[in-house]
Design goal:
The protein has helices at 29-35, 89-92, 117-125, and strands at residues 8-9, 14-19, 22-27, 38-42, 49-50, 55-61, 65-69, 74-79, 101-105. The protein is of the alpha+beta class.
């Protein structure tokens, strides 16, 4: 299972790549593996305001439907348009082509509340 050191993580198995005031969000390798073959992804609309911990979208697989939660509050500025026709990218490349969306992070959000790769690794091993 891949857990890149450069990313931050949530207890709900989302990853976050922070670039200034923007955060790219996806689901982890652990999550996509548990879900199985992804067949559909529902993403938020650009311009939508999201609260930390609120539902950001859904991922449907051959096994189940899982909600994706916003790891940080902000406004959605971009979604991955490729996932509409190729949802399997979440399985094949969860940290690259399988990203879900980018949010402009709300002022005052604390990135330190997100898990480091080491802490996320501990979470997935327990």
């Amino acid at each position: 299972m891949e857990i890149p050191e450069t990313l931050r993580y949530t207890d709900d198995h989302e990853w976050v790549r922070i670039d200034g005031g923007r955060a790219t969000i996806g689901i982890t390798d652990f999550a996509q593996s548990a879900l199985g073959d992804v067949v559909f992804v529902q993403l938020p609309e650009p311009g939508a305001a999201v609260a930390r911990g609120a539902t950001l979208g859904e991922v449907e697989s051959t096994k189940s439907v899982s909600e994706v939660y916003a790891p940080l509050a902000g406004v959605v500025i971009e979604v991955n348009p490729e996932l509409a026709s190729s949802p399997e990218r979440l399985n094949s490349d969860p940290y690259g082509l399988g990203w879900l969306c980018v949010i402009e992070v709300a002022t005052g959000e604390d990135f330190a509340t997100l898990l480091t790769a080491e802490r996320y690794r501990e979470l997935t091993q327990s």
